[in-house]
Backbone:
Protein backbone atom coordinates (compact mmCIF):
# COMPACT_ATOMS: atom_id res chain seq x y z
CA UNK A 1 0.00 0.00 0.00
CA UNK A 2 1.45 3.36 -1.00
CA UNK A 3 1.51 6.30 1.38
CA UNK A 4 -1.20 8.05 -0.65
CA UNK A 5 -3.45 4.97 -0.43
CA UNK A 6 -2.87 4.76 3.32
CA UNK A 7 -3.85 8.41 3.77
CA UNK A 8 -7.04 7.91 1.74
CA UNK A 9 -7.93 4.76 3.70
CA UNK A 10 -7.27 6.51 7.02
CA UNK A 11 -9.39 9.46 5.86
CA UNK A 12 -12.30 7.11 5.24
CA UNK A 13 -11.82 5.51 8.67
CA UNK A 14 -11.63 8.94 10.36
CA UNK A 15 -14.85 10.00 8.64
CA UNK A 16 -16.62 6.85 9.82
CA UNK A 17 -15.30 7.38 13.36
CA UNK A 18 -16.42 11.04 13.21
CA UNK A 19 -12.94 12.24 14.18
CA UNK A 20 -13.26 15.85 13.02
CA UNK A 21 -9.61 16.91 13.47
CA UNK A 22 -8.15 13.87 11.73
CA UNK A 23 -10.74 14.08 8.94
CA UNK A 24 -10.06 17.75 8.20
CA UNK A 25 -6.28 17.27 8.40
CA UNK A 26 -6.24 14.28 6.07
CA UNK A 27 -8.61 16.05 3.65
CA UNK A 28 -6.14 18.92 3.42
CA UNK A 29 -3.25 16.51 2.84
CA UNK A 30 -5.23 14.60 0.19
CA UNK A 31 -6.08 17.91 -1.52
CA UNK A 32 -2.38 18.86 -1.65
CA UNK A 33 -1.53 15.47 -3.17
CA UNK A 34 -4.28 15.82 -5.77
CA UNK A 35 -3.17 19.37 -6.56
CA UNK A 36 0.33 18.04 -7.23
CA UNK A 37 -0.98 15.28 -9.49
CA UNK A 38 -3.06 17.59 -11.67
CA UNK A 39 -0.37 20.28 -11.88
CA UNK A 40 1.42 18.66 -14.81
CA UNK A 41 1.30 15.95 -17.39
CA UNK A 42 1.60 12.42 -15.99
CA UNK A 43 2.62 13.49 -12.47
CA UNK A 44 2.22 10.64 -10.01
CA UNK A 45 2.37 11.13 -6.28
CA UNK A 46 5.09 8.66 -5.32
CA UNK A 47 5.86 8.04 -1.65
CA UNK A 48 8.82 10.43 -1.91
CA UNK A 49 6.60 13.21 -3.29
CA UNK A 50 3.97 12.59 -0.59
CA UNK A 51 6.66 12.77 2.11
CA UNK A 52 7.78 16.14 0.72
CA UNK A 53 4.16 17.35 0.77
CA UNK A 54 3.77 16.16 4.37
CA UNK A 55 6.97 17.91 5.46
CA UNK A 56 5.84 21.12 3.80
CA UNK A 57 2.51 20.86 5.65
CA UNK A 58 4.27 20.33 8.98
CA UNK A 59 6.52 23.34 8.39
CA UNK A 60 3.51 25.53 7.58
CA UNK A 61 1.69 24.36 10.69
CA UNK A 62 4.72 24.97 12.91
CA UNK A 63 4.85 28.53 11.60
CA UNK A 64 1.13 28.85 12.35
CA UNK A 65 1.56 27.52 15.88
CA UNK A 66 4.27 30.10 16.48
CA UNK A 67 2.08 32.91 15.11
CA UNK A 68 -1.01 31.87 17.06
CA UNK A 69 1.02 31.52 20.25
CA UNK A 70 2.48 35.01 19.84
CA UNK A 71 -1.00 36.35 19.10
CA UNK A 72 -2.43 34.67 22.20
CA UNK A 73 -4.81 32.40 20.30
CA UNK A 74 -4.02 29.16 22.13
CA UNK A 75 -7.09 27.30 20.80
CA UNK A 76 -5.86 27.62 17.21
CA UNK A 77 -2.26 26.87 18.26
CA UNK A 78 -3.45 23.64 19.91
CA UNK A 79 -5.46 22.69 16.80
CA UNK A 80 -2.43 23.22 14.56
CA UNK A 81 -0.24 21.21 16.98
CA UNK A 82 -2.77 18.37 16.81
CA UNK A 83 -2.62 18.46 13.02
CA UNK A 84 1.18 18.23 13.18
CA UNK A 85 0.94 15.06 15.29
CA UNK A 86 -1.48 13.49 12.81
CA UNK A 87 0.74 14.29 9.82
CA UNK A 88 3.96 13.16 11.55
CA UNK A 89 2.47 9.68 11.90
CA UNK A 90 2.83 9.25 8.13
CA UNK A 91 6.50 10.26 7.95
CA UNK A 92 9.28 7.68 8.16
CA UNK A 93 11.19 7.47 11.44
CA UNK A 94 13.56 10.40 11.79
CA UNK A 95 17.26 10.02 12.49
CA UNK A 96 18.48 10.76 15.96
CA UNK A 97 21.12 13.42 16.52
CA UNK A 98 23.73 10.75 17.34
CA UNK A 99 23.18 8.95 14.01
CA UNK A 100 23.21 12.25 12.16
CA UNK A 101 26.50 13.29 13.76
CA UNK A 102 28.07 10.04 12.52
CA UNK A 103 26.90 10.69 8.95
CA UNK A 104 28.15 14.30 9.11
CA UNK A 105 31.51 13.27 10.57
CA UNK A 106 32.01 10.61 7.87
CA UNK A 107 31.07 13.09 5.15
CA UNK A 108 33.46 15.77 6.49
CA UNK A 109 36.33 13.26 6.66
CA UNK A 110 35.64 11.95 3.17
CA UNK A 111 35.48 15.48 1.72
CA UNK A 112 38.35 16.81 3.86
CA UNK A 113 36.06 19.78 4.46
CA UNK A 114 36.88 23.07 6.16
CA UNK A 115 34.41 25.57 7.69
CA UNK A 116 34.36 27.34 4.30
CA UNK A 117 32.88 24.18 2.73
CA UNK A 118 29.62 24.40 4.69
CA UNK A 119 27.40 24.45 1.59
CA UNK A 120 29.14 21.49 -0.02
CA UNK A 121 28.90 19.44 3.17
CA UNK A 122 25.21 20.36 3.62
CA UNK A 123 24.45 19.25 0.07
CA UNK A 124 26.25 15.94 0.50
CA UNK A 125 24.67 15.20 3.88
CA UNK A 126 21.15 16.16 2.76
CA UNK A 127 21.54 13.78 -0.19
CA UNK A 128 22.34 10.96 2.22
CA UNK A 129 19.64 11.66 4.82
CA UNK A 130 16.80 12.91 2.60
CA UNK A 131 13.51 12.16 4.32
CA UNK A 132 15.24 10.86 7.45
CA UNK A 133 16.36 14.12 9.07
CA UNK A 134 15.07 17.68 9.30
CA UNK A 135 17.10 20.25 7.35
CA UNK A 136 17.35 22.60 10.34
CA UNK A 137 18.81 19.84 12.50
CA UNK A 138 21.28 18.88 9.74
CA UNK A 139 22.38 22.51 9.44
CA UNK A 140 22.90 22.77 13.20
CA UNK A 141 24.97 19.57 13.35
CA UNK A 142 27.08 20.50 10.30
CA UNK A 143 27.85 23.92 11.83
CA UNK A 144 28.90 22.26 15.11
CA UNK A 145 31.07 19.68 13.41
CA UNK A 146 32.83 22.16 11.09
CA UNK A 147 34.03 24.44 13.88
Residues:
Amino acid sequence: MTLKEKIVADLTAAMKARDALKTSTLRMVKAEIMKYEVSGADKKATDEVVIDILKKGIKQRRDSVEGFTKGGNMAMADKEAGEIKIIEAYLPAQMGEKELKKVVTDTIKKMKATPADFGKVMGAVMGKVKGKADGAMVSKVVKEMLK
About this structure: The mean pLDDT is 90. Helices lie at 3-16, 20-38, 47-71, 74-88, 97-111, 118-129, 135-146. The chain has two domains: 3-88, 97-146.
